[in-house]
Amino acid sequence: MMRKSVYVFLSCFLLSGCGMIDYHPYDVRISGETEVNAHNIERIEANCQGKTTIRFVTMGDSQRWYDETEDFVKEINKRNDIDFVIHGGDMSDFGLTKEFLWQRDIMNGLNVPYVVLIGNHDCLGTGAKTYKAVFGPTNFSFVAGNVKFICLNTNALEYDYSEPVPNFTFMEQELTNRQDEFKKTVISMHARPHTDVFNDNVAKVFQHYVKQYPGIQFCTAAHTHHFQDDVIFDDGIHYVTSDCMDLRAYLVFTITPEKYEYELVKY
C-alpha cells in the first residue's frame, strides 16, 4: 500500500510540475510575430512610394542594452520626420532565442517600420536559425522611393565557409533585380570590410560589386560600437558606422534628389 501511495504521489508531482519545465535557451521556439522584415518592408515601400526625398535612421548593437533601446524607441516616436529604421545587427548578445524576442518586442513599439540585419553575436548558438525564423533571410533588399537598399550578411567569421559570406551571387542578382524602380543605392551590413569578422580575402571583390550599383550613395554598418565615417577603399564611397545603444546615439540620413546628408543624434 505504501509503495502504491508513493507511485501516486510521484505521478501527481510530475504531472503538476510540467508547467514548470522550461525550454533550453537555444531551443528555437518562437512566440509572437515572425517574418518581421518582410512585413515591415511592405510598409516601407508603400509609405515611400513616389517620394524623391527619404529620411531614415540607422542604429545597432542593442544587445544587452534593453533600457537604452526602449529609450531609443521613445525618442524616434517623438519625431514625425522618419520614414523607417535600419537596425544594423547584434540584437542579441549570446544568440539566445529570448534575446531576439525581447528585442523584437521593444522595436515593435516604433511608430515607423524597421528592418534588422544579422550581426555576428546573432550567429552564436542557434542564433542564426532564430534570426531567420523571426526576421527572415540574412540577405534581403527593398526599394524606398527611388533608392534601393541592399542588406547583407557580412559575418564571415561565424560561418567557417559553410555558406558564402558575403554572398556575391545575391549581390550580382540585385544589380538588375527591379532595376526600373531605383536610381540610387545604399548598402547596409553589420561588419564592414577591414573589421575582425569580415573576410578580407574577398574585400576587393566586395568593393568591385559595391561600385557597380547604380547611384551608390554610401554604405552603413554597425559592429564596432563607435561612430565612424571612413572611405576605406580608393573609390570615394563612405562607410558610416553607428554607435552601439549603450552610447545612446543614432544616425539620421536624408537622401534628396541632389545629395545626401546625415546627423549624429544623442539622446
UniProtKB/TrEMBL annotation:
<dbReference type="InterPro" id="IPR004843">
    <property type="entry name" value="Calcineurin-like_PHP"/>
</dbReference>
<feature type="domain" description="Calcineurin-like phosphoesterase">
    <location>
        <begin position="55"/>
        <end position="226"/>
    </location>
</feature>
<protein>
    <submittedName>
        <fullName>Phosphoesterase</fullName>
    </submittedName>
</protein>
<dbReference type="InterPro" id="IPR029052">
    <property type="entry name" value="Metallo-depent_PP-like"/>
</dbReference>
<dbReference type="Pfam" id="PF00149">
    <property type="entry name" value="Metallophos"/>
</dbReference>
<dbReference type="InterPro" id="IPR051918">
    <property type="entry name" value="STPP_CPPED1"/>
</dbReference>
<dbReference type="GO" id="GO:0016787">
    <property type="term" value="F:hydrolase activity"/>
</dbReference>
